[in-house]
Design a protein that fits this description.
40% of the residues lie in helices and 20% in strands. The protein has 417 residues and is α+β, with helices and mostly antiparallel strands. It has a 15-stranded mixed sheet that branches.
Length: 417
């Protein structure tokens, strides 16, 4: 049964009631107070530094047309992304996810675009079987594939196979093709595998898995090696995060003062949006912050005093630290977080070049840099493709996926991680 108009009107009335309550709290003023008084630097309750500005803490504004027409500092770019079919449970007791990673080039490189790294992560509670396999060729040598035996868990099987497949495919493909990058390499997503590093905060079983199992350490070790490879070649590496969900800054602030926004993205939107005297959003310019050095949340794992999960680091530990700046595009009302290792942002001139490059790309495309958009298109597995692949896996297994009532009622839905 659908909602009748009287029900819709009643719900809208509740929403107006909630709005009146929210409007009594000046969230914009709270954000301005935090920006002005708490981030230079932001400390935890024990006096440890969570966040610190690199250079002067400030907000910048650049005319969108001017930024788009400016000559970009880096003439060529490469991007990388990975996509999955999303984890699926089958009637034979297996839980699997399949990820493929692809690299893009701007200007285009068709040979490079054809390459793929494919990982099938498999979980089974049957301790008598194992699935690990060697790398196998694919598509006349343009691709490679392998099966990964996911560590045994009593819960979170889907989360485990998803993270391991996604990040292993991405990091392996990045390492395989690292030497093709000439000027700038942009990961579609964070610098390190935050979806995996968050296991430490999600559940005791996941935290133990992260601490004790080889597979997660292998994945994180790939990203450490990736930083080392690009530092050695003196080619900058950044991560472009389109949908950041981090709450590390927000949690740190809440221990000291009011932080009414839901996450860090909401905070930065508050401090970067511009409005006229009538409260209308101004859309003629991009705005951004300075770069920050972060040890908050999962960023602390790669801090100079972090343990990096026990992974050996061959460079000065501080060179691996996460630094970032935030860009706001009022045309789409989107906030983008851009990360880079401290190795590439300790120099003020290089920070400025990276900032100008990203602002140029966002201004010109009203969204992510072209290299990121191309990598996303190459690596993504749409719903139709995922369904077709899952049916082929069912045939190979000679069994069906497990279904629930909602699959019949609503159709299969993608699980959000």
């Amino acid at each position: 049964m659908t909602l009748d108009p009287v029900h819709v009107d009643g719900i809208a009335s509740l929403a107006r009631q909630v709005r009146q309550t929210v409007e009594t709290s000046d969230q914009g003023a709270a954000a301005e107070t935090v920006w002005a008084n708490f981030l230079d630097p932001l400390y935890d309750t024990h006096g440890g530094e969570l966040l610190a500005p690199m250079g002067e803490q400030r907000r910048r504004m650049v005319d969108i047309e001017d930024a788009a027409l400016t000559e970009p500092p880096y003439p060529t770019q490469h991007g990388l992304d990975s996509g999955t079919i999303n984890p699926t449970t089958f009637k034979n007791g297996l839980v699997i996810d399949v990820a493929q990673a692809a690299m893009s080039a701007t200007p285009s490189d068709v040979e490079l675009h054809r390459g793929r790294t494919i990982i099938m992560a498999v979980h089974s509670n049957d301790a008598t079987i194992a699935f690990d396999g060697d790398w196998q060729g694919l598509d006349h040598g343009y691709g490679r594939r392998r099966v990964l035996d996911a560590p045994k868990v009593d819960r979170f099987e889907q989360r485990v196979v998803h993270a391991l497949a996604l990040y292993l495919a991405e990091s392996e493909h990045a390492l395989l093709n690292a030497d093709t990058v000439e000027d700038l390499f942009i990961l579609d997503g964070p610098l390190y595998p935050t979806g995996l590093l968050r296991w430490a905060d999600r559940d005791t079983e996941l935290a133990e898995l992260l601490d004790e199992s080889d597979e997660p350490k292998t994945v994180v070790g790939n990203y450490v090696e990736l930083v080392e490879r690009f530092v050695d070649r003196d080619v900058p590496l950044v991560g472009f995060i389109k949908n950041s969900s981090t709450k590390a800054l927000t949690r740190g602030v809440r221990k000291r003062t009011n932080a009414p926004w839901v996450n860090d993205t909401a905070f930065f939107r508050r401090v970067l949006e511009r409005r006229d005297e009538d409260g209308e959003l101004l859309t003629d310019a991009l705005t951004c912050t300075n770069w920050f050095r972060s040890r908050a949340g999962t960023d602390g794992v790669m801090a100079a005093d972090g343990d990096a999960l026990g992974i050996e680091r061959s460079l000065d530990p501080e060179l691996y630290e996460v630094t970032f700046f935030v860009c706001y595009d009022p045309r789409s009302d989107l906030v983008f977080r851009v990360e880079a290792p401290y190795a590439f942002t300790s120099d003020e001139e290089r920070r400025e070049r990276l900032t100008r490059q990203i602002l140029h790309d966002v201004a010109a495309r009203k969204g992510p840099p072209l290299a990121v958009a191309k990598a996303d298109e190459l690596a993504s597995i749409d719903r139709e493709g995922g369904e077709r692949l899952t049916r082929r896996i069912e045939q190979a297994f000679d069994t069906d996926r497990e279904k629930e009532y909602n699959d019949t009622r609503w159709g299969a839905a993608d699980e959000v991680f």
